[in-house]
Each structure stands twice: as C-alpha cells, then as structure tokens.
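Below is how a single chain appears once it has passed through the pipeline. First comes the sequence as given, then the structure the pipeline wrote out for it. We keep one example in the README because the format questions we get most often are answered faster by looking than by reading.
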Amino acid sequence: MKLYEKFADDIQRLIRQGVYRPGDRIPSVRQASQHHRLSITTVLHAYLLLESRGLLESRPQSGYFVSLTHEDGKGRARELQQSKPIAVSSSVDVSRLVLSTLRSIGDDNAVPLGSPYPDASLFPFEKLNRYAYTAGRDKSMWGVTNALPPGDPHLVRQITRRYLENGMSVDPNEIIVTIGATEAINLCLQAVAKPGDVIAVESPTFYAMLHAIERMGMKAIEVSTHPEYGIDIAALAAIVKSQPVAACMVMPNFQNPLGFQMPDERKRELVEFAAKVDMPIIENGVYNELYFGETHPSTLKSYDKKGLVLHCSSFSKSLTAAYRIGWALPGRYRDKVEKLKFLNTLATPVIPQLAIAEFLERDGYEHHLRRLRKSYAQQANLMRAMVSRFFPEGTRMSSPAGGYVLWIELPPKVDAMRLYQLALEQGITIGPGYMFSISDSYRHFIRLNYSSPWSARIEQAVITVGKLAAVCAH
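Resulting structure:
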C-alpha cells in the first residue's frame, strides 16, 4: 500500500467512526503535512483519493470538508442534477401563490424556514436609525428635490467606492438609486422589452424575477441550469436561435434558490454570447456580498464591453431590508431607466439613502459583512448536515457558495404544497418549489432559509420537516 493510500484510509476510518462529521473541515494540506510528517504531495494525493470516494469535497479557497452526501446509512442526501425544463415560452402567474405564502411566513409565531428575507438580528438597526434620525432633523431634507433620480450624491459615492473595494471600477454617473432591487429589476426590464416579449430565465428562478415579467405582461422561457455552474449557455443559444428573446434575466452569484456561484469563465462566455446576438442581460446581484469564500465574486457587469448588462443590487440582503434602498447600473440603457424611474415613482426617499451612506462611510460595513458571512456559512453547514441525516432516502440538495437559502429535491411522491400545509400546521414555514417556475417542474422541491441563528427551535423545525416529508413520500 502506498503512503498516500494509508493516510487516506486513516482519515476514512475517522470519518466512519464519527470523529469527523458531515460538514466538518479537515486539516489543511499544509497542516496535515506538518503534523503527520508527510510531503504536501502525499497529503494532496490522499485528499484527492478521498474526494474520488465521495468522502471529501473541496471548496475553493476554503479547504477540504467531509462530504455531506457520502453514504452514511439512513437519510443520505445526494447532489442535485441539472434542470431540464421544456423550452416553451409561457405567460406568468405566480404572484397569488407567492403572496399567500409570504403572508403565512409573516406569522410571528412560525419558524421562518420559508422566508425569502434574511434574519434581521445581525443587522445594525440602532446605528442606522441614529443616522436616519440625524438626517431627519435637517429641514432641507424634507422636500423631494434631494430624492430625485439618479439619487443622493453621498450614497452614489459610497456605492461607487464599495465596487472599487471589491475590485470593480464603475462610473458613478451610471448609478441610479431605486426603491430596492425589485424596482431596479422592474425598471431595467421595462427599458429593454415590451408586453408580449419573451424573457429567458434560469430554471429554477427567483420568483421576484417572474413577478417582474408577469407585471409587464411578458412571457418567460426557462433555460436549463446547472446547480453548480449556472445557466446552460448552449441551451440558451439554442432557444435564441429558435425564437426571438428580448432579454435574459439571471442571478450569477448565489442564485436564489440554488445558491451557486457561476465560474468566471462561464460569466465571460455568457456576456460574450449576449454581445454576439445583441441581447440585454439583467443581472440580479443582491447576494453578491454574502460569499463564503475568501474573495468577492466577479459580476457579469465586469465583463461587459457593450453596455448590454443591466446590473441591479440593493442593501436589503446585506445591511437592512427595512429601508428598501437599491440601485441599477443600466449600461447603454441608463438614460431610459432614469426616465422610467422618474415616471414610475418620481423619487427614492432621501433619509434612508443618507442613513446608509453615513453607515458605509463611518461604521465598518466590511466588519459587519465578515460576521454575517461567517454566520451564514456555519448555518449552511449545519442545515445541510441536518437535512442529510433526517430527510427521507432519495433527497438531494444544493451546495450554496453564499447567500442564505438551501434548495432541496425530495422524493417524487412528495407534493411540496401538501408538505407546506403540514409544516404550517406545526408552526413551521417552508418555500414550496411551485413558486420558482412557470410550470410544475418543482412540485417535489422546497427552499429552506438558514439565516436565523442556529437554535434548538430551528433544529427541531428542520427535523420535523424531514419527518413530514418522509410521511408524504409513502
């Protein structure tokens, strides 16, 4: 037996004995090399062997972790497969289902596993409110003039600086402040398409994107999407070749609900394809700051040379959802989006803009984000481990690279709406898969939110959902 094989067997034995549990990080290659007096090459070969056995998984810039999907008896959860939607455009009607579901999530007594919102307990409300109070005392802020498009100059400067800190240079004159990312997406879609047009979306896709399409009287067509690499560009190209597509709407970083981070080369390829066929791309970047790796992810916007990418984002997922402040970088459609902003809502309230700008300038936004990212990464591992252990045989789940939601495929016999009702009776909310598609392709899928600090209540809720899913599966 070779040295690396012996070391791999030693680690495998520790995993089987429960010394290392699913989701645990094992010593780095360098640490293992020093502690066991092995060469780095030997350790690396051992880890690669364990990875091929399905016992370890590598995470870019984070190290090696015990796989949450290895064979460990009851409750094995495997990785998701690439979606294969039927490439037919259709009108959209998901808003009623989403609204009724969100209302149930608003019950204060329910465990919010189905919530689309981040848990607010880690957000700096007191500091933001102090800045808002100070701004509100300034009578010059009581009018509308300061709130007119494109937005408060102080906030625009801070947004521009934040992009620069994350490795991307943007023109501050391109930024248009909006009432959350939802308005930014709506305005951008209105700028590039008209009622009846076909919009390409990922499958599954975040229902806010479908809402925008529904509101505009447009049609959606779902594109096959890989749970790790994102939208299938070849499938998108085939659709564009077969019928007119006015625009494509995507979430390349920590997509809701899949949680993937699209590789840089795929982002570049998508933007190059869009440029080739002159197709606008609306990029939803609301989760970009919530990465689990060491570096901020790149954006589609950073590869755009023709102004075809309309980049949208907000502070709602990373700082506060209460203030509803977002923005758009609409590229060549900048003037049109600004005009639509003025016609649609006239202005964005200036006091929330000033409060956020002051916080960004004075109060350590990056420090706040590091704490948030660390919490979400830990909670993602905990929830994946619980799903792997307590959900029925045949369950598959995503491997989020950031954000705060987990996408779960249950056995085919499980109806997500039935499970949703059963969980609600137990005081638990979940996100049924029906909300993430224009078809019933995800009738046995659910989305769970892991942003709440882990507690016995959260843990018991996940176990309960798993048990209910097992009942539904029979």
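The two ends are 46 Å apart (CA to CA).

See the next section for the split statistics.
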